[in-house]
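Limitations
The structure tokens in this dataset are predictions for the assembled complex, not deposited experimental models. Users should treat interface geometry with appropriate caution, especially where small molecules or nucleic acid strands are included. An illustrative entry is reproduced here so readers can see what is and is not provided.
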Amino acid sequence: MALRLLPFNMFPQILPRFTVPSKSLTVTINLPSQRSTILSAVLRPAAFALNIPGILSDLWESVLRAVPKKKTSHMKKRHRQMAGKALKDVKNLNTCPACGQIKRSHVLCQHCVGDIKRQWGKTQLA
Amino acid sequence: MAGGAAKYRHLSRSSSHRQALLRNLVTSLFKHESITTTWAKAKEAQRLAEKLITLGKKNTETSRRTALSTFYTPHEILPKLFGPIRERYADRPGGYTRVLRVEPKKDDQAPSAILELVDGPKDIRFAITARTVARRRDKGLETLDGITLMNVRKVTQFRKDGVEDLEREISRVNLDGGEGRAKVTKGGKKETKREGEKGPVIDQGGKELKQ
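Predicted assembly:
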């Protein structure tokens, strides 16, 4: 009987977190003999529950401390993600020979194109 | 690059979608003589448009059928293609269309361009060259700089009565702008003056900027 009971009582030692009152265990086994209760009292996980979590708590502390303390703010995140993606200066500029305003080189002057299109529109209407 | 050099732009479309797009573009081009789209679409539509004008110049039964199956409104455009456009480009050895970059028109700032039929009524390079020459004459400069000379040559080379057309356009610009007198000289004279004066023109631009 003692042999049979042992594995059940060993459980709390392996997993000290799931500590169940030993009394309830004996009830479920349906063998409420005097000896088994004594055994269970001897092998009560209380002793281990004090020792093992003592070691574990140090480990847990160090693991928990490796986590960011604060949420990264919107500003910080945007600054990080937009780094090196700033707009470039437009340097390829010259003056339009037809109107004298500034235009991008290799691109038609938008003022002239607009003017000409407007004139074409007028002549079409007329 | 994996897959080798692309022979044409896929324009992020399936074959049928792309074909439909290009047919739409060239139909609009021949209808309006000039269209504004993104630069990549303009370059692809330009290929097709040049081929269609070649068909127009061939003017055979086969070419008529091919053109008929390309346009979406063939009965509107075929008489034009096999009539005025064929005559306009009879002497021109290719290069019937022109793609000019313009400032982005679309919301996504995609590079835009104007695709136009050369020497047509909506030839924007012709109009801008006329304005350039008019402005220079208004300043009292009779000579033209290198690039303007090149543009004048391009615009008048194969155009019927090209020089006269350009002079008329220049005088019209002067009248419209109302800036100074319309100084019309003989067009031939302008082309003989081949002193590409790039330096002074750039200097003037700089002065204007400072003012």
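Some entries come with short summary sentences. For this one: Confidence is low (pLDDT under 50) at residues 178-211 of chain B.
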